[in-house]
UniProtKB/TrEMBL annotation:
<dbReference type="InterPro" id="IPR001258">
    <property type="entry name" value="NHL_repeat"/>
</dbReference>
<dbReference type="Pfam" id="PF01436">
    <property type="entry name" value="NHL"/>
</dbReference>
<feature type="repeat" description="NHL">
    <location>
        <begin position="129"/>
        <end position="165"/>
    </location>
</feature>
<protein>
    <recommendedName>
        <fullName>SMP-30/Gluconolactonase/LRE-like region domain-containing protein</fullName>
    </recommendedName>
</protein>
<keyword id="KW-0677">Repeat</keyword>
<feature type="repeat" description="NHL">
    <location>
        <begin position="17"/>
        <end position="59"/>
    </location>
</feature>
<dbReference type="InterPro" id="IPR011042">
    <property type="entry name" value="6-blade_b-propeller_TolB-like"/>
</dbReference>
Length: 204
């Protein structure tokens, strides 16, 4: 859906449940979730149940950017790659896309159509180098002003950070619960969404 500057709500792309590329409302999605916009106003959508990442041009043309619908978590180019459950998406300053592949417990990167595993190895909890680190259902993701990728690690009840140096660390959280406090004391209960303001304050 699109809300115009004058407050009009209209359907921009998609019309009913399915899996079909096409123009505007002729296209079909199944469980669209995360969304991101690049510097050329192209829209990227996590098509959760179709296990694909879709692209919508400013003119409303919908195509499949990556994923083939198979539940394999395979790296590769475009539709040769596969996702388990693409759930959230964000974009960096170079228009590279980052996708939280939640059930596969990994963060995937799409650069010029090539899908690679950016962080995560298997389900668990482990800080360290990107490809050795472990997540448990990563969901909301966003970049801060320093180029850190912030990740809601849902089942671990933690907020994780992937730094430009290629290491995953824990920012806040430990066990499930609700408690305000400093980073070591605060508790979360399945944090799902994160956003960042211009001053790099994080909101979950």
């Amino acid at each position: 859906m699109r809300i115009t500057p004058n407050g009009r709500i209209e359907c921009f792309a998609g019309n009913e449940v399915g899996d079909l590329d096409g123009y505007g409302v002729k296209a079909k999605f199944n469980g669209p979730s995360g969304i991101a916009i690049d510097s050329e106003d192209n829209i990227y959508v996590c098509d959760f149940h179709n296990k694909k990442v879709r692209k919508i041009t400013p003119r409303g043309v919908v195509s499949t950017l990556a994923g083939n619908g198979l539940n394999e978590g395979r790296d590769g180019y475009g539709t040769n790659a596969s996702f388990s459950s693409p759930n959230a998406i964000t974009i960096d300053k170079e228009n590279n896309l980052y996708v939280a592949d939640s059930q596969d417990c990994k963060i995937r990167k799409i650069s010029n159509g090539m899908v690679t595993t950016f962080a995560g190895s298997c389900e668990g909890y482990l800080d360290g180098p990107c490809l050795a680190a472990q997540f448990s259902y990563p969901a909301g993701i966003a970049f801060d002003g320093l180029g850190n990728l912030i990740v809601c690690d849902v089942r671990n009840n933690r907020i994780r950070r992937i730094g430009p140096e290629g290491k995953v660390t824990t920012i806040a959280g430990s066990k499930g619960g609700y408690l305000d406090g400093d980073q070591k004391e605060a508790l979360f209960n399945w944090p799902l969404i994160v956003t960042v303001d211009p001053n790099s304050n994080l909101f979950y």
